[in-house]
Write a structure and sequence with these properties.
274 residues, two-stranded antiparallel ribbon, TIM Barrel, 8-stranded parallel β-sheet, globular, 9 helices, alpha/beta
């Protein structure tokens, strides 16, 4: 059976508070993305040491370092160089938290993604992948609607180009739906399930043509089918809340609790099926 995790800043930017709430909910693992308003790869050494102490005291395993590598413009070579340094920083701090997974994206979404743009994306993914292979870490590539690779079809194109054990998938069916994929499960999942290292959950709908993040179970993603398939396929990794949903005036706790309750309800329902 898989474990249940959370990206801590979905609960709170106050890392101490996020950890205490995650413990009270009985979660299994945490992901490090943003603490006290900064990405974990951008904090100073004093803050990093504080985070290490808090994590050690909590006893939580860290699933991954949720860096922001390649959330930049495809054509901005200066930004690209900065993001390679960001990648190196994520690789540097990952072992401090006993994890081997650092996150990777596919640049900000282009207005038109023709073959020439695809080739440029692949060209600029070569260096991160070679660095990961050199350093012995796993790049957890996350599909997102704000990037160039969001749907399962686009992911298939990525993994056909880069068949490396150091490149794995952080599968987010909610992001796939937001990127325009009408059927993240079962069609999308079946296309890419062999590449998954980790799963994010969120829910989403489109209203008046605008994307709206919702509590897990309240949107269009077939989380019940997805959870059933993960159990059937023997997935042993982490299913982590990264909901983006916010109630008015809430900083994160009440909103993420709604998604946590929705997710756990779905899991219990599936587990209790004949």
């Amino acid at each position: 059976m898989f474990k249940i995790g959370v990206v801590t800043d979905e609960i709170s930017q106050d890392f101490n508070e996020a950890i205490e709430v995650a413990k009270s909910w009985g979660l299994d693992e945490i992901e490090l993305h943003s603490v006290w308003g900064q990405n974990i790869c951008h904090v100073n050494d004093a803050t990093l040491s504080k985070v290490i102490r808090i994590v050690k005291k909590s006893g939580f395993p860290v699933t991954s370092i949720d860096s922001l590598t390649l959330r930049c413009s495809l054509d901005d070579d200066e930004a690209y160089a900065e993001h390679i340094q960001h990648l190196l920083r994520s690789i540097e701090i990952a072992p401090l938290f006993n994890t081997n997974v650092v996150r990777l994206f596919s640049f900000w979404k282009e207005d038109e993604l023709d073959d020439a743009k695809w080739e440029k994306i692949f060209e600029k993914l070569e260096l991160p992948l070679r660095i990961a292979e050199r350093e012995g870490v796993t790049l957890g590539f996350e599909n997102v609607s704000s990037g160039n690779i969001g749907t399962s079809e686009e992911l298939v194109r990525l993994f056909r180009r880069f068949d490396s054990p150091n490149l794995k998938l952080i599968w987010d069916p909610g992001n796939a739906y937001a990127a325009g994929e009408s059927d993240p499960y079962p069609t999308g999942y079946e296309r890419i399930k062999d590449r998954i290292t980790h799963v994010h959950v969120k829910d989403v709908d489109f209203r008046d043509g605008k994307r709206v993040w919702l509590p897990v179970g309240a949107g269009k993603v077939d989380h019940e089918g997805q959870i059933r398939a993960l159990i059937k396929d023997g997935y042993q990794g982490v299913v982590a809340l990264e909901t983006h949903f916010r109630l008015p005036g809430d900083s994160g706790i009440r909103s993420t609790r709604q998604s946590f309750d929705g997710l756990m309800g779905i899991i219990e329902s599936v587990k209790n099926e004949p």
